[in-house]
Specification:
alpha/beta, five-stranded mixed beta sheet, 5 strands, 48% helix, 21% strand, globular
């Protein structure tokens, strides 16, 4: 089911971005063809608070497997755990991250992780960008005539774009370094 990561030269490269959460998990699928980016799908996976945590995690896992099987991404981009002050929220996000990593690994996909700072810098060019600025840039980069909503889904699209930009920059750097050697 997995596909090899592409250099900028392969025809199509699909990345599944995941903004982890137990109640709401954002996902975004972005395709790169050369340097052209296009939206494939985005949205949220939600679980009811009335379900036991184990059942919520199983539901997220099954829904992620369904997305992976349906869209056949090459790679997964996942937000690193950002710990603020709420330990309970950090633990729930950590559990959701684990489920996302497991789903990707069970499908043979590579998972790359990015901090909020890295995402903001890749999308807006500024590490303290506001959520609205990120959404506007995601809209522009994907050529959309609407702002992607809700926030969790928009963040997942930003993750996928961040990963594609990062891998394109790495491939270009490697090509320049390899091209200079004789």
């Amino acid at each position: 089911m997995s596909r090899e990561p592409s250099s900028g030269l392969m025809a199509k490269h699909i990345v599944l971005g995941i903004d982890p959460g137990t109640a709401t998990m954002g996902y975004g699928l972005v395709q790169a063809q050369g340097e052209q980016l296009s939206l494939i799908d985005y949205g949220t996976l939600t679980t009811p608070a009335t379900l036991p945590v184990a059942n919520r995690l199983r539901t997220l896992y099954q829904e992620l497997l369904g997305l992976i099987q349906r869209y056949q991404p090459n790679e997964v981009a996942l937000e690193e755990l950002f710990f603020n002050k709420n330990i309970r929220t950090a633990l729930a996000v950590g559990e959701a991250r684990g489920v996302a990593m497991l789903a990707a690994a069970n499908c043979g996909l590579t998972v790359s992780e990015y901090t909020p700072l890295q995402i903001k810098q890749a999308i807006v060019g500024y590490g303290r960008a506001r959520k609205e600025q990120i959404q506007q840039m995601v809209r522009l980069l994907l050529g959309l005539d609407f702002l992607p909503q809700p926030d969790d889904a928009a963040d997942a699209l930003a993750l996928a774009i961040c990963h594609l930009h990062t891998t394109q920059q790495q491939a270009a750097l490697e090509a320049r370094q390899g091209g200079g050697a004789s």
